[in-house]
Amino acid sequence: MSTERVLMRNVGRPEALTVRGYREGGGYDALAKALRLQPEEVIEEVKRSGLRGRGGAGFPCGAKWSFVPRQTPKPKYIVCNADESEPGTFKDRLLMEHDPHQLIEGCIIAGWAVGANTTYIYIRGEYTKAAAILESAVRDAYDSGVLGTNVLGSGFRHDMVVHRGAGAYICGEETGMLESLEGKRGQPRVKPPFPAVVGAFGCPTVINNVETLCCATHILLRGADWFKSIGTDERNTGPKLYAISGHVERPGTYEYPIGVPFQTLLDGCGGMYRGRELKAFIPGGASAPMMKASDRGIKMDFDTLAKAGSMLGSAAVIVMDETTCMVRATLRLAKFFAHESCGQCTPCREGTNWMKILLQRIHSGQGSEADLDLLARVVPNVGGISLCALGDAAQGPVRSLVDKFSDEIRENLRAGRYPTPAPRYFDQGAAA
Amino acid sequence: MPTVTIDGRTVEVAAGTNLIEAGLKVGVQIPHYCYHPRLSVVGQCRMCMVEIEGMGKLQAACSTQVMKDGMVVRTTSPNADEAQRAIMEFLLINHPLDCPICDQAGECGLQDYSYKHGQAFSRFRYDEKRTYPEKERIPLGPTVMLNMNRCIQCTRCVRFTEEIAKTSELGFFQRGSHAEIGTFPGKPLDNPLSTCVVDICPVGALTSTRFRFAERVWYLDKSPSLCTGCDVGCNITLEHKRGAIKRYKPRQNPDVNDFWMCDHGRSTHERYREVPRLAFPQIRRNGALAATGWKEALDHVAHNLRSRRSEGAIAFLGSGFLSTEEAFLLAKIAAVVDSPHHSIWVDSGPARQIPNPQGGITGHDAAPNRRGAELAGLVPAAGAVASEDLLLEGGAAKCGAIFVADSDFGRAAYDPKVVERLREAKFLAVMGWADSPLARAADVVLPVATHAERSGTFVNVDWRVQRFEQAFPAPPQVRPGVEALADLLSRFDSKWSTVTPATVFDLMAEEVAAFGGLRYGEIAAEGTKLARIPEAAPAGAGA
Fold it and tell me: Residue B232 forms beta bridges with which residues?
């Protein structure tokens, strides 16, 4: 197993914040290489690498780039999705705060590949530090001739704008992001048409996650074959950042080849907090259905987790130990989704709120097993028919609660254990 | 063109047609709330979920277009049914469910689809309903009231103000289950088309300030008619009860008003309540008007039209409110008494613009049928006494008799100076529905039907002949204008004793070239555009 840090190679190397320092570490070589290739060759290389989107959906990146029409009188855009707001996810923040030029390089490569002259980096509003770092990095890149009318002397023009969001989870959904970017209320659009054809300002647009674009940089530099050699199989390739939080000794962002078993992740961050027992974990951010402790050996890649009824999502791993009240934990997530639903489509607007109400009732001690049964029947209606993925996301954790933990809930209901006491938070000294 | 099969029925549609429209072509109604044929597709109510062969997930019919041959759609498969039931349940969990006191009851999308796609029981606790306190009665502007508790967030109203009215007064605020419709601070919903948002609101959230809680809609009878507010000729559904008009609603006609009509037009029927009505024929005896019968009144008019010719001109004044047939008969009467003095008066109004798929249509007159009346012959011959002479100058004094065919022909009928001027004629007969000052000054008063009580045609600003139908009968002593005028005409020429608007129109079409042999029964539902549009003012044909 490769233990080389690829995406995180510049973490802890503050000199990489400047163009000069970044170049000393081999930065912008990938861009120079890409500019010598034809755009089609760049797309082909990314396609061959098997790179799948790191934002959550896992859509093949090369295919997405190839959907952009080549012959069009309209301008084309790259939009970098840096609106990292999935609960539990903090991998992109690390990349932007420690290695902004890696992202800038990836954006320009994507721009060259699809023929876009502008990149918008839509960054989460709360990421003030990352936004400041990115903005100064973009300025530095303009000053050094990396951005502007003549990228690295190639004659290719590329501009970059860092656009800060205003604090809505829904703006991480790609079309919601475009609406927000255009200055409108951030709510998803109906698809089709897909952004590759009608995106930002009505023009063809590629929307990629921060980590995806960073991966593209390395694919160009070291080749698709190298990228493919990392990972589980043909469909799950490359290095991957896992953001691990919850009841572990050393929470944080860790880089592994995609598809390492969950147990490896757990061991890598020092094991369970104070040696407690694992009860459940969320493998891919708040919208991924929860897994039980018995699944600890599962490979953390797109297809294995999908087969197991969950998803890799943004690879935000939330670990819960034996002291966790599953209803309370799920209620917290349900409240989040009910709060963040944009309110335009019916199943999500009404369904997220209804799930929250039912969980609240169960947790308050006023509920009964009938409420749990009702919850089980309401949940499937929330996903699948909503306008965007938020409805699907919201029902994920609740569905897994009903599927996997209903025996425990029934027992607790019968024994009158709700509401459970508020959890005791980590004392400052023990947290790593 | 690609074909699509919906619930086993195959139909060929233009590429890009969405499934809701394609379904309508084969008689399959796919339930929907947010979709409207003239508004952008947002696919957000999720009511129109259907199953498409070869696609794993259910798809929204409104945003799915038929692009290539062979799409097979099922709207009533178990999965689609379940999705529609689930959406109905979601829409209703936070809905007040107080239909008995809701003004929309009877024409409510939630009620209709509940019967068809919903369930009869509730799984949601009443005390947990989301409400919008203090937002039950928000005036969005002068014409529209919002009750946020009833809203289902379909945003049709928001899109209407953005895309059709192009005024963008409404917005979608807040998030999640607290999302709400509202206006921006200091910018009320106040545009000429504002009440259309009430029509397109599928639920009781938006109600018309003028109509709300005035009637239970299931007690209203409905008749196809035309608006008389201007010369656009908006097609309307005239809703009435016991001989009184309760409201106008636009009736779709893509060539004229499409789905819309203006607030002014909606309010025009209120005039029938505000202005006193002529209820029976009257005749002046010893200086005062006294009730009489139709025979005596018409005999008196006929006698005067005949005998006063030596005392001066016999003038006929029509209006833009006459139907084309009435105008034609009036011109005929002028012809039989050998008078060239026949004209109309039409007030001009503000420009009234109604959007339609052709880009819109604008009316400038304050009456619906100036063009029809002129085509029918109410154009003064050269040198004759015209309406301007009668109303603006002392032309009436030169007249032996004046016959005014509309007591409510315009603002001038209420102007004491104009009434005084017209009164200078030796004999003044006034026909009409309104008991206006002009009618009170007449020697003979003939009460006739309003446009809701008669049938006929109007010719709009685009030279489109449109029919309107009698919605309810006129009061006992009141006769439709065509009947009254024909009765008067038969005193000169007996062949006119029995006519209907249809026979008059057909006769007129033979005589007047502009109507080009059109027949009353052949006027299309959306109106018939005249084939030969007169370039200048039409000649006094028919006279």
Answer: none
Asked if the C-beta of A350 comes within 8 angstroms of chain B's C-beta atoms, the answer is: yes
Closest residue in B to A170 (Cα–Cα): B175
Domain ranges of chain A: 14-229, 234-321, 326-414
pLDDT tens across A333-374, in order?
A: 999 999 999 999 999 999 999 999 999 999 999 999 999 999
How far A310 CA sits from the closest chain B CA (Å)?
A: 18
Inter-chain contact A347–B124, Cβ cutoff 8 Å?
Answer: no
Does residue B155 sit at the A interface (CB-CB below 8 Å)? yes
What lies within 8 Å, CB to CB, of A183 at 6+ separation is none
- Within B272-359, strands assigned E span 282-285, 288-291, 313-319, 342-345, 348-354
Residue A425: the pLDDT is: 66
Using alpha carbons, select from A431, A388, A414, A399 the residue that is nearest to residue A176. Answer: A388
Q: Determine how many CB atoms are found less than 10 A away from the CB of residue A323.
A: 14
Task: Output Rg (C-alpha) for chain B, integer angstroms.
Answer: 27
Residue A100 is encoded by which pair of tokens? 């902004």
Write down the pLDDT at residue B458.
97
Largest CA distance in chain A: 73
Confidence of residue B539 (pLDDT cuts 50, 70, 90): very low
pLDDT digits (tens, 9 = 90+) for B221-273: 999 999 999 999 999 999 999 999 999 999 999 999 999 999 999 999 999 99
- Give per-residue pLDDT as tens, B348-362: 999 999 999 999 999
Q: DSSP assignment, residue A325?
A: -
Alpha carbon distance A259, A278 (integer Å): 20
Q: Does B19 touch chain A (CB under 8 A)?
A: no
A272 close to A319: Cβ distance less than 8 angstroms: yes
Decide if B481 contacts B405 (C-beta within 8 A): yes
State the Cα torsion B97-B101-B104-B109 to the nearest 10°. 20
Rounded to whole angstroms, the Cα distance separating B138 from B180 reads 12
* B166 lies within 8 A of chain A by CB: no
| Domain A326-414 -> CATH class | mainly alpha
* pTM (2 d.p.): 0.93
Dig out the tokens for A46 from the structure: 């990314």
Q: What is the pLDDT of residue A273?
A: 92
* HSE, side-chain direction, 13 A CA sphere, residue A254: 21
CA–CA gap between residue A2 and residue A291 (Å, rounded): 26
Q: Tens of pLDDT along B204-219?
A: 999 999 999 999 999 9
DSSP H or E run through B363: strand B361-365
C-beta separation of A170 from A176 below 8 A: yes
- Residues A346 and A385: their CA atoms lie apart, in Å, by 9
- Which secondary-structure segment (H or E) carries A227? helix A224-228
Q: Are B330 and B504 spatial neighbours (Cβ–Cβ below 8 Å)?
A: no
Residues B71-106: tens digit of each pLDDT? 999 999 999 999 999 999 999 999 999 999 999 999
Inter-chain contact B46–A386, Cβ cutoff 8 Å?
Answer: yes
User: Which residue, among A380, A384, A282, A287, has the nearest Cα to A340 in the 3D structure?
Assistant: A287
- B49 and chain A in contact, CB less than 8 A: yes
A111-116 average pLDDT score: 97
Q: What fold does the segment set A14-229 form as a domain?
A: Rossmann fold (3.40.50)
Cβ–Cβ below 8 Å for A190 and B60: yes
Query: CA A389 to CA A285: how far, in whole Å?
Result: 14
- Share the mean pLDDT of chain A: 94
Which residues 6+ apart lie within 8 Å of A407 measured at CB? none
Distance CA A178, CA A204 (A): 11
Neighbours of B357 (CB within 10 A): 10
Sign of CA dihedral B39, B41, B44, B48: positive
Given CATH 3.40.190.10, say whether it is the number of domain A234-321. Answer: no
CA B210 to chain centre: 16
